[in-house]
Predict the structure of Lasso peptide biosynthesis B2 protein.
Amino acid sequence: MARAAVVLAFLLAKLPPRRIRVILRVVRWHAKPTTYEQALAARSDVVAVNARCAGSYCLQRSLATTLLCRARGTWPAWIVGVRTPPFAAHAWVEVGGRPVGEPVESSTYRAILAVRPMSRR
C-alpha cells in the first residue's frame, strides 16, 4: 500500500497547489483524525519504500504519508509552508499541531496551505 501511495503522490505533486488542495479535501471525507503514532508509522513506511521520499522530496513524502494514512482510514493535517530569509518552502504532515518526523528547524516555516482533518460537528 505504501508503494501505491508513493506513486499517487508523485502524480499529485505535478499538479498546481490549488488542484492538490481540492483533491485532498475530497479524499479526506469520512476519515478519522490520525494519531501521531499512526502518522509516524505511515511516514516510516513511505520512506522505507522510496529513496526520493527518504531524501529532500518533502512534497511527495508528505502527500504519500497523507494518502497512506487515508488508505488506513485516518487523516492527518497536510501542510505547506514557507520561511524567509532565506526563502524556502516545505511540505509536511502534522497531528495536533506537532510535525510528524520532521527536524526541529521545520518549526520556522509559516503554513500557507493546509488540508486538516474534518471537524466532528
